Amino acid sequence: MTLRVVVADDQALVRTGFRMIIDARDDLEVVGEASDGREAVRLTRELAPDVVLMDVRMPVVDGIEATRQIAGCDSRARVLVLTTWDVDAHVVDALRAGASGFLLKDIRPAELVDAIRLTARGDALLAPTVLSRVLDRFLRTTPDPAPPPSLQDLSGREREVLTLIGQALSNAEIAGRLRLSEATVKNHVTAVLRKLGLRDRVQAVVAAYDHGLVEPRRP
């Protein structure tokens, strides 16, 4: 199956570079380009891509607000935010808006391609340079204005799984910790996302922190 990608960046040269990298892969295809956030939202609704590469700083509507609109319009598209700025506030805002990943623009071509594939699968994806800092400091100290989803429908086991997702553990690592098969863990993860109305693992990480299931590590 070919993954459909929309590239949103206000610089034409950046969009062209991303297109060349993406279209060179047999399983990826750029189906649209946007020069501002409003156009990105429109193309996402019209073209139904699997992944949107979203720049943070764009005219008309910025990447954070465009991400929020895409997440709120029942689109299946997952947003992968890219920026030249290693700024924690951008990471937090992007995650709270519904982004499924965050990377810096100096990423290597092969890493970008892998990131698109991971994001399309719903795996958590953040640049290694910002992952631990964001999870440990900013998600717990920057409250979401919207209340987190209630955990009352989760079973005890599902709460355990959500807690371990919040610690950025993979399904294999969760299976080892709980002494379950990976298939069973995958079923629990699917149930957690469905019951909480979450798009992917990234949003599950945010929910785990918002509910205090995961505490920031001490420096």
Automatic annotation (TrEMBL):
Location of the Response regulatory domain: 4-120
Record domain HTH luxR-type: where: 147-212
Single Gene Ontology BP annotation: regulation of DNA-templated transcription
Any one Pfam family match given in the protein's UniProt record, by short name: Response_reg
Transmembrane segments: none
Keywords: DNA-binding, Phosphoprotein, Transcription, Transcription regulation
One GO molecular-function entry: DNA binding
Highest taxon listed in the record's lineage: Bacteria
Residues with 4-aspartylphosphate modification: 55
Protein name: LuxR family transcriptional regulator
